[in-house]
Structures are given as C-alpha cells and as structure tokens.
Amino acid sequence: MKLPIYMDYHATTPVDPRVFAAMAPYFTEKFGNASSRNHSFGWVSEEAVERGRERVAHLINCDPSEIVFTSGATESDNLAIKGAAIGHRDKGNHIVTAATEHKAVIDTCKRLTHEGFDVTFLPVEPDGLIDPQLLADSIRPNTVLISIMGANNEIGVIQPLADIGRLARERGVLFHTDAAQAAGKIPIDVAAMKIDLLSLTAHKIYGPKGTGALYVRKSLPARLVPAMDGGGHERGLRSGTLNVPGIVGLGVACELAGGEMAKETERLTGYREKLKERLLSALDHVYLNGHPSKRLAMNLNLSFGYLEGEALLMSLRDVALSSGSACSTATAEPSHVLRALGLGEALARGSLRFGMGRFTTEEEVDYVAEKVIEQVKRLRASSPLYELATSGAGFDSDAWKHPAQV
Ligand SMILES: Cc1ncc(COP(=O)(O)O)c(C=O)c1O
Q: CATH code at 375?
C-alpha cells in the first residue's frame, strides 16, 4: 500500500490511464482545430469531438446534438441558470433551488437577484433530502426554473430527480440539475427523468480538469442566452475553440463510468459500510450526516463530537480527506450543507468527508479506519470537554447535539 492515501474523490479524481491514453494523440499529432473545415487536421478533430459528444449523450440518454461542451460544471451551471432564466424572462422571474446546492448554483442564483430575479432557497430535511411537497408549494405562476442537484458533494445525498422532473414538467417549469457528482455514479436518464438542463464535469469521473458539458433539451420554450459570445461554436451557446483532448477525455471517461457503474457501486458500498461500522463501533459521539442509503456509494460523512475537524485532519498526515469546516477554498466558515441539515456550528466543524473511488482498495479503507480511530482517541484524551461529557457528571452541551439524536 502506497502512502499518502487519497480519499477525497469528491474534490477531484486522477485521470484514468485509459482516458489519458485516448487523449494523448490529440495534444500532438492530431492537433487540428475542430472548426477547420478545409483540411484533414480539422476533420480528424471534428470527428473526435463528435465521438465524445455521442459518448456523453449515451451516459445520460439524450441526443448528441443536445450536448454543449464547456470548461466544467461551474460554467455549465452558470450557462444553464443564467441562460435559461434570462432567456425565459418573459414567463417570469422566480427560481427555486435548495440550501445545500454547490456554490456554483447558489452564487449564480444570488447573482440573478441583482438582475431582478427572486430566488427561493428551499430548506432540506435533516437527512439532506428535499421535501417534494415543499418544492411543489414553492412553485408560483412566475417560476421559470427549478435547480436541484443530483448528488451532494459533501454528504453524497441523492435527490429524487424523477419526482422533481415530473413535478416541474407538470407545472411548466424548467428543471436543471447539477450532476457534477451524480453523472457516472448513478444511472441518469434525462428523458425518463424529465430533465431539461444537466451539468456535468470530467474531473469527477477520472477525466481531465477543465472540461465539462451541459445537456440542453432540444425543445425548450426559448433559447438559452449564451454566456460567451464569439465564433458561434456549440450552436452559438458557447463560443471558443473546442478543447479537443479534453472532450476526447470526457467522452472516454463517460463510457468507462457507465460501463463500470454497477460493479463500482457494489464494491464502494461495501467499503463505505465497513468504514462506517468500524468507526461507529470503536468511537462514541459519532454521527452520520445525510441519508443512510439514498447517498452515493463512495461517500461517508461523519461528525465527531468534541473534536475539531481541522485538528483531526492535521493529525492524519498520510490520509487525504476533507472536513466540513470549509465549504470553499476562500472561506473558513462551517459548511453551509451541514448547517442546512440542522447541525450546530460545533458539529459542522467536527465533520470529516470520506470520498472513495476507482483506485481505493480495501487495505486503504482498513488503514484509514485505524488511523482515524487512533487519532480521535488521542485528541479526545486531551479534551476537557470530552472528559466532562463522558464522565457522567451530567454535562450535556446542546452545542454537540446532532439533529439525528433529537
Ligand atoms: C456539485 C458540484 N457542482 C459543481 C462543481 C464545480 O465543478 P467544476 O470544478 O467542474 O467547475 C463541483 C465540484 O466541486 C461540484 O461538486
């Protein structure tokens, strides 16, 4: 087993060697501009782009012509939300999203409030799921768009996309989903789920960073307003010379993810349950964040009472994990996702996210479990608060109560 161990697959993934091998020629001998119509260099690149488009489309069951290549899920979210909201402004100015969305959705919606849009940020249940009735009740005559993510990047919770899609279609509202974490991990069928717009990104599925896609349903009532003007690439929705190697990589990454999904889900669910059982049986005051089964196989998110997540991370030098104390690189605020589940600041700060993936081994899972148990015990041994809480002296701080307990 090689150290350090990577268990932060929600943040990003390594490029699969099979993906890398497929991309390599498009950096060197097959370097043509996919828009060059007059020579074979261009044709070779264009063909590769179209093959990539077919592979992405196949993963989510849409027509290849409905795929727009972008630089990643952040750009796809921006194009989908701003493009659809502004493009459909005639219909209304209200958007519905959820409190647990990624900042790429939350901040994009917030930006639109400066353009006269009104945004509802739906609260979630303590298990991280949205309440379908609350969603239905939030739709108004002027609602133009619902944006609810497929799977959460912190707690892995999978939202009921088909139910949301059905509701949105019935009520004549567009449905966008940020599937950055869901695509390639759970089955997605945009036709069956009645999804109008879907964002995905290559670097979460063993493809390269800086390449993503937006699915745009062909028969939307109005055109999206493009985020980038220029040469008119991608049906005018996203101008700019296409990133051919990136698109080839995204295509192969989608194909591999689709083919290996069932097997990987089973393997990683086994690892996740093993890791959870080990930690919960060896340690007290540990709580699972997010629904126990409606979550990505790869995701385990736990809060450790009487402990700072950052201190625990620092003590786990040879394991790459993430804590819920920073929701983005720029802030040290406790995670807005964990806060939305109802966790107090202390438990939100005392959380760890375990993200397993294609190259995780059972040996690594065992090692991480042992290390975490060892370090939690060590840190708590010098914690007066933990001592008080477990000494039977009647100390019971509300600050450390988990919503799953109450
Ligand atoms: C749910 C979700 N949405 C959007 C993004 C942003 O994706 P990208 O890095 O491709 O812009 C991420 C990645 O952090 C994510 O997890």
A: 3.90.1150.10
Clarify whether residues 202 and 268 are in a common domain.
no
pTM higher than 0.90: yes
Residue to mutate, 105, 198, 201, ligand 1, most ligand atoms under 8 Å from C-beta: 201
Among 62, 109, 254, 327, the one annotated catalytic: 327
139 Cα–ligand 1 center, Å = 26
Q: What domain range includes position 88?
A: 17-257
For residue 54, give the amino acid letter. Answer: E
Residue 402: what pLDDT? 86
Residue 149: closest CA among 7, 296, 292, 253: 296
Which residues does a 6 A CB cutoff place in the pocket of ligand 1? 72-74, 102, 104, 149, 153, 178, 180-181, 201, 203, 212
In a domain, 25, yes or no: yes
Q: Is 103 in the same domain as 217?
A: yes
Torsion of CA 393, 395, 400, 403, to 10 degrees: 100
Q: What is the pLDDT of residues 224-245, one digit of tens each?
A: 999 899 999 999 999 999 999 9
- Residue 406 domain-assigned? no
| Neighbouring C-beta atoms of residue 132, cutoff 10 Å | 14
Same domain, 70 and 113: yes
Rounded distance between C-alpha atoms, residue 349 and residue 65, angstroms = 44
Task: Determine the residue of 204, 250, 329 to mutate for testing ligand 1's pocket, defined as the one with the most ligand atoms within 8 A of the Cβ atom.
Answer: 204
